[in-house]
Amino acid sequence: MRILLCNDDGYFAPGIDHLARALSDLAEITVVAPERDRSGASNSLTLDRPLSLRRAANGFHYVNGTPTDCVHLAVTGMLDELPDMVVSGINIGANMGDDTIYSGTIAAATEGFLLGVPSLAVSLCSKAGEHFATAARVARELVVLLQRQSLHEPVLLNVNVPDVPYERLRGFVVTRLGKRHKAEPVVRTISPRNETVYWVGAAGEAQDAGEGTDFYAVQNNQVSVTPLQIDLTHSAQLSLVREWLAQ
Asked: Which one, of 220, 229, 214, lies nearest residue 159 by Cα?
């Protein structure tokens, strides 16, 4: 089995190292990750300049581009054979609800999915990052499950793991995405050069976080597994827009 690993925190991040070690005896592992932190890069591709691919001392490869660039470059240009799976992570911080729109972690897995490869995005749900071993063990269990029993079609799974010791997990649960409140406003400040600069504000708190959502699962120490799709069509509004245009 061949597994391609990526992330959005950079090839030097602890999460991807934990992930590589956890999966190393299950498959042939190739790591292609951004050369720096590209959190929030979403599904962007670099089209205005060429990309470079380099190899670090630990054997990981890194690209001067986005997470999507990394997976696209690896699958369509670097690797001789299509990988059997793409695993993105382990992200430090949750990727739940509206986070999925912006997440580079999910974007890397999405690119694998779009290229026909079963893909997982794995996130550790805190900024403290105390229990990467828990998320790595969860990722390993899901990879083993996919090895043993394929879902028979390309799948994109968003996995959020509570930042607790493995023994405190209360199982796996299939969830839907919740929803956050509107993000906080940008923070305006003055730079040392007396220029006005802006920091993007923090994400909003959970709004739709009831039972069945990813927020609810993680809050209750369950591993949230959400199958994602790429079709952005608002099917419920098709008739509404047809009627509006016909007026």
From this structure: 214
Q: Helical H runs in the chain?
A: 14-23, 67-73, 99-102, 104-114, 132-148, 214-219, 238-246
The two three-digit tokens of residue 126, written as one number: 């805190």
Decide: 157 and 121 in contact? Cβ < 8 Å: yes
Return the sign of the alpha-carbon dihedral for residues 31, 224, 208, 202.
negative
Tell me if the pTM is above 0.85: yes
Beta-strand relationship, 119-124 and 156-161: parallel
Sort 68 into a burial class: Cβ within 10 Å, 0-12 / 13-18 / 19+.
buried
| Structure confidence by residue, pLDDT tens digits, 35-87 | 999 988 988 999 999 999 999 999 999 999 999 999 999 999 999 999 999 99
